Amino acid sequence: SYFELFPSFYLLHNINDNHSLSFDYARKVQRPRYEDLNPFRTYINERTFEEGNPNLMPSFGHNFNLNYTLNQEYYFDFYYRDNGRYISTLTFQDNDNFVLRDITQNVLESTSYGIDFTYGKSITNNWYLYSYISLFHEDETFIALQSDDYSFKNEYNGAYIDLTNYVTLSNDGSFKGELGFVYLSGWLQGSYIQEESTNLTVGLRKSFFNNRAVLSVSANDLLGNYNSYVSSQYLNQDNRFLTVPETQYVKFGFTYNFGNFRLEDNQRSIDKLELDRLE
Q1: For residue 260, is pLDDT > 90?
Q2: pTM of the shown model
Q3: How far is residue 132's CA from residue 210's CA, in Å, rounded to a whole number?
């Protein structure tokens, strides 16, 4: 048992109509799951097994965020995370028995920091652009159980980009399209590094009979680059694998509304013009 305090606070300062700053802090706790405490082995295949760790302890972290808003359009978030002795699932390569061992462990230390940028605006009356860009650093220092219990620091500097375009393709607004692109340079996954991946998506939506019927089609992972390798290369560890779930698909949809489908709750239905007026 333990007694801990978890303070949090938030500060906001509106410099003027075009500039605002905010800062928030919170202390967090991460507790082990019951299955992570189970010491028994579960075999995934003949060469890979996972096991719990009954010695896991809760971890305590500190989250800091500094936010800056420009013209209510550009949002910048500077963050720092001291994740403490974060509970992480690590994979170790047993070179004597030729097996991979997955075990949950309290790392020695873990931090992450970066900057996030968000922008969303109507470029024209028929085109709305949403963009999210993140530059980040992640690191975990852990005991390498199959490398003479050496203390190893796994770290990664990466970027994430999400660009989504919403367009209206007809004068009456009944035909709309969506084009999205996501890029991830990679990220830290315990003792592994997830490698680069991209996802290009497209969608079309057509409504009929005064929005009573809607026909839609969407396609995912058009470039076939969404699935990526996961690799671990340090000291005497060198392994790499690729998981291939089904990510490339085309989906068709059709909906038809019966009855008084146009009855709506006025408190939850505010059109774009009214939202712009409120701003």
Answers
A1: no
A2: 0.85
A3: 34
